[in-house]
UniProtKB/TrEMBL annotation:
Residue stretches in coiled coil: 247-274
SMART domains: PHB (SM00244)
The species this protein was found in: Bradyrhizobium arachidis
CDD domains noted in UniProt: SPFH_HflK
Lineage: Bacteria, Pseudomonadati, Pseudomonadota, Alphaproteobacteria, Hyphomicrobiales
Pfam families from the UniProt entry: Band_7 (PF01145), HflK_N (PF12221)
Annotated spans, Disordered: 1-32
Domain Band stretches: 72-255
Gene behind this protein: hflK
Function comment: HflC and HflK could encode or regulate a protease.
Name listed for the protein in its UniProt record: Protein HflK
Length: 378
């Protein structure tokens, strides 16, 4: 079959053969680079009469090169960076974030460390990608986390160190240490081992975490300052503090028993705080009552003795009169509440009518309980 009957063949859409281009589509064409270069050369020749290598042309080319060289000194410092400007390799100044300028290369160069960013280093653990969980998981690193305490126990410590570059120590950070992260990690692990080695295991596992963290942070900072590293330690955080996995179950039982002991002690102390004040109050009340009774008894005894002495003094002055007065007072006290009839049965008496109801002459008292309402003495 001839190609002209195939409508341009399998690769063509026009009346030509398989390697023909056929009719071109209608639309804008891309610019011709050769034409642009040719026009630029013509305009440059118009600006520089006499050719490229004339005096004016060479001067203009040099000025353009110098202008581009001077403009190359502009640079931008990002928000978490600081610009360290070096003049022939020597640190001359530090610039803040924003647009800045330095003398072009090779006079001055600039380094852009991330001095305002807080970095994190984990010790005793590492983060690994976990595709099954679509995230990152923590893997323990025993050679970093197992440490010996001051009482010869082993404790598993995982902690993180937050650090950044000092604003006035960027030059020290760049030129005094070669591997900042490795240096901080090594110093932090050494400081933690030293602090743990001076401490007992029980305070570390319970309530001394803040003290331990503060001690480790101060020791790390002091060591890094001795290196002239220009690094500032912002915080040390202890993530996990446990005994080794082989004895953690027994240790938790001991901790639970200790917690129960503290709970019982607190309950007993609460009960004692409630009962002891009450007992002390009752004891004070009894003592005050006894003291009052003693004072009362002493006062009454002193009063009676004083009264007896007064009576005795009067008795010595007039014994008969005093004796009679004492007799009368005694009889008054004894017979004061009884019913009395005085009968003078002497020789001068006229006698008494035998049937005279003498008891009717006295004032009748109300009958007491147990006596009949109509009864009486006869």
């Amino acid at each position: 079959m001839p190609w002209k009957n195939q409508g341009g063949g399998p690769w063509g859409s026009g009346p030509k053969g398989p390697w023909g281009t056929g009719p071109q589509p209608v639309g804008p064409r891309p610019p011709d680079l050769e034409d642009l270069l040719r026009r630029g050369q013509d305009r440059l020749q118009q600006i520089m009469p006499g050719g490229y290598f004339s005096g004016i042309g060479i001067t203009l080319i040099i000025l353009i090169i110098v202008a581009f060289w001077l403009l190359s000194g502009f640079f931008r410092v990002q928000s978490e960076e600081l610009g360290v400007v070096l003049r022939f390799g020597k640190h001359v100044r530090t610039v803040q974030p924003g647009l800045n300028y330095h003398l072009p290369y090779p006079i001055e160069t600039v380094l852009l460390p991330k001095a305002l960013r807080v970095n994190t280093i984990s010790i005793g653990m590492t983060l690994i990608d976990d595709p099954a969980r679509r995230g990152r998981s923590i893997r323990d690193v025993p050679e970093e986390s197992l440490m010996l305490t001051g009482d010869e126990n082993i404790v598993d410590v995982d902690f993180t160190v937050l650090w950044r570059i000092k604003p006035d120590g960027v030059g020290d950070f760049l030129f005094n240490i070669q591997n900042p992260e490795g240096t901080v990690k090594a110093v932090a692990e050494s400081a933690m081992r030293e602090v743990i080695g001076r401490s007992q295991i029980q305070p570390i596992l319970t309530g001394a975490r803040n003290v331990t963290e503060q001690g480790v942070q101060e020791l790390i900072q002091r060591t890094l300052d001795g290196y002239g590293s220009g690094i500032l330690i912002t915080q040390v955080q202890m993530q996990k503090v446990d005994p080794p996995g082989e004895v953690i179950a027994a240790f938790r039982d001991v901790q639970a028993a200790r917690a129960n002991l503290e709970q019982l002690q607190n309950e007993a102390q609460t009960y004692a705080n409630q009962v002891v004040p009450q007992a002390r109050g009752r004891a004070a009340q009894i003592l005050q009552a006894a003291e009052g009774y003693r004072e009362q008894a002493i006062a009454e005894a002193k009063g009676q003795s004083a009264r007896f002495l007064k009576v005795y003094e009067e008795y010595k002055k007039a014994p008969d009169v005093t004796r009679e007065r004492i007799y009368l007072e005694t009889m008054e006290r004894v017979l004061g509440g009884a019913d009395k009839l005085v009968y003078d049965g002497g020789p001068s008496g006229q006698g008494v009518v035998p049937f005279l109801p003498l008891n009717e002459l006295t004032t009748k008292r109300p009958p007491t309980s147990g006596q009949q309402s109509g009864g009486g003495n006869r």
